[in-house]
């Protein structure tokens, strides 16, 4: 029997569908932390399954730091315009831009390997895998650009 307070909490924490959260809680006997780990495992598997699917939609997101001395842009791809117009997808794009502005990366691959600034227990790659599970579509980071006032090079 699923504890519905825990189900609601897990759903709010992860943003993943109620049905997957319920399934995870059932399999872990209502243990939220174990359910999160299980959802991450499922997300990695789902991302792997969808990794070859074409991502021709998405958006370009930007962020300018409050001091106006650092800015970033991230190109984020998905499969459909339905997902690209989703509020949560747009939020992910802005989060990735804030990450790019906060920690310089040499390229998109380095960017994906960074610890997520809001939760150092996960990488940007893991954050993308969670989004794949949440949206049910392949999601990829394209270009990652960062500018810093007075620096001649951008990444």
Automatic annotation (TrEMBL):
Pfam families: EF_TS
TM stretches of this protein: none
InterPro entries: EF-Ts_dimer_sf, Transl_elong_EFTs/EF1B, Transl_elong_EFTs/EF1B_dimer, UBA-like_sf
Translation elongation factor EFTs/EF1B dimerisation domain location: 71-149
GO cellular component, one term: cytoplasm
Region span, Involved in Mg(2+) ion dislocation from EF-Tu: 80-83
Entry's Gene Ontology molecular function annotations: translation elongation factor activity
Subcellular location: Cytoplasm
Primary residence: cytoplasm
Keyword set, alphabetical order: Cytoplasm, Elongation factor, Protein biosynthesis
Protein origin, superkingdom: Bacteria
Family: Belongs to the EF-Ts family.
Family annotation (HAMAP family): EF_Ts (MF_00050)
Physiological role: Associates with the EF-Tu.GDP complex and induces the exchange of GDP to GTP. It remains bound to the aminoacyl-tRNA.EF-Tu.GTP complex up to the GTP hydrolysis stage on the ribosome.
Identification of the protein by name: Elongation factor Ts
Organism expressing this protein natively: Candidatus Roizmanbacteria bacterium CG09_land_8_20_14_0_10_41_9
């Amino acid at each position: 029997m699923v504890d519905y307070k825990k189900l609601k909490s897990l759903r709010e924490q992860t943003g993943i569908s109620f049905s997957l959260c319920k399934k995870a809680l059932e399999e872990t006997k209502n243990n939220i932390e174990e359910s999160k780990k299980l959802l991450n495992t499922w997300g990695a598997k789902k991302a792997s399954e969808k990794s070859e699917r074409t991502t021709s939609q998405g958006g370009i997101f930007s962020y300018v730091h409050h001091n106006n001395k650092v800015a970033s842009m991230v190109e984020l791809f998905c499969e459909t315009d339905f997902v690209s117009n989703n509020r949560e997808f747009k939020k992910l794009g802005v989060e990735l831009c804030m990450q790019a502005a906060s920690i310089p990366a040499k390229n998109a691959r380095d960017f994906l390997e960074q610890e997520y600034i809001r939760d150092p227990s996960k990488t940007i790659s893991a954050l993308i895998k969670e989004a794949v599970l949440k949206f049910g579509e392949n999601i990829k980071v394209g270009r990652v650009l960062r500018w810093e006032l007075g620096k001649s090079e951008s990444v």
